[in-house]
Specification:
By secondary structure, the protein is an alpha/beta fold. Helix content is about 40%, strand content about 20%. Helix 2 runs antiparallel to helix 9.
């Protein structure tokens, strides 16, 4: 993957910042300002959890403050993993799909079906943290996104969970699964899906339950396939050198704020899920459902395709991660 020219511009901008510890106006002591980067535009429903996390930390009244300094307009999502690994930002709010070049195991994040609170209890988070420290020099601080499902959206109806010969927009995240359904996967940016649907270039696309209104896709979408599959997850990653520069009390405060945000997220997710379904209902998007047997086979096929990739790309860690994070519902 080539270097993103925006990264050089962003690094130059950060050179104006004299380290990560600055003296705030009117303060008698130094305050640690941690630079945060996000792979999503800093607005809308997807920004809500990060906004809550930043506000939670900043409201603690401690000597740590978080400042959002990078988003897709300055750093490509595919370069944000490198940015946090290299210390260009201290914290990254980033989906695993965007840094598999550094941590192939991150491709498994979307497959977890055990709640994050249980992952903290059964040791999974510790294993993920060790892998991230070893492979990208980053602390795996937390995980958001439990229960936000991806769906296949189409402009024509299918009577079975097979789409032989259909052209659909896809990404590496779900390409293996879609191809197992007979789909011809066409990779394109999310911003290009509207014109592709309108012009008949694609018959559908995969996207999370959240956000198709933001892409203007309501008017070119007629059906949403149920059930959903995978989880639209987001990790909170912390540059390891920056982390080691914090005191034990500061580290505990950051961990507590992350866990609090993970717990807060559950009610937020339920609220936004309801809102997004209502938006799609009002736009006339109809849910397409299949038999219980076919629906189960649909989800099983998605999980198998995903885990096959993870196990192939990480023979040393894949099985252990699956054991700790995934409950086979067959």
């Amino acid at each position: 993957m080539g270097k993103d020219p925006r990264m050089n511009t962003f690094k130059a901008m950060l050179c104006a910042v004299a380290g990560m510890t600055v003296l705030m106006p009117g303060s008698a002591s130094a305050e640690t300002v941690l630079r945060v980067g996000t792979f999503l535009p800093p607005q809308g429903v997807w920004h809500g959890p990060l906004e809550h996390f930043i506000e939670t930390v900043n409201a603690k009244g401690s000597d740590i403050k978080l400042e959002l300094v990078a988003d897709p307009s300055s750093v490509s999502p595919f370069q944000l993993g490198d940015a946090v690994s290299g210390g260009v930002v201290d914290i990254a709010y980033l989906s695993g799909a965007f840094y598999t070049n550094l941590v192939p195991e991150a491709d498994a994040n979307k497959l977890f079906n055990i709640p994050v609170a249980e992952l903290r209890e059964n040791g999974a988070m510790d294993v993920l943290d060790q892998i991230h420290r070893q492979k990208m020099g980053a602390v795996f601080l937390g995980k958001l996104g439990d229960g936000i499902k991806y769906h296949i959206y189409t402009d024509k109806e299918s009577s079975e969970p097979r789409f032989e010969g259909w052209n659909m927009r896809g990404t590496p995240l779900y390409r293996p699964f879609m191809e197992s359904l007979g789909v011809n996967v066409i990779q394109m940016q999310g911003s290009e899906v509207y014109s592709a649907m309108e012009g008949g270039v694609v018959d559908g696309y995969a996207w999370p339950l959240w956000g198709i209104k933001d892409l203007g896709l309501l008017e070119v979408t007629k059906y949403r396939v149920e059930p959903g599959f995978y989880n639209a997850e987001i990790s909170v990653l912390f540059n390891e050198n920056s982390w080691n520069g914090l005191s034990e009390d500061q580290q505990k405060m950051m961990q507590d704020a992350t866990i609090e945000t993970e717990q807060w997220f559950i009610d937020y997710r339920n609220k936004i899920d309801d809102e997004q379904r209502s938006i799609q209902d009002e736009a006339g998007i109809q849910p397409v459902t299949f038999s219980e047997e076919d629906s189960k086979a649909f989800v099983t096929a998605a999980d198998k395709a995903g885990w096959d990739v993870v196990l192939k790309n990480s023979p040393e860690n894949g099985e252990r991660i699956k054991e700790l994070t995934y409950q086979d519902n067959q």
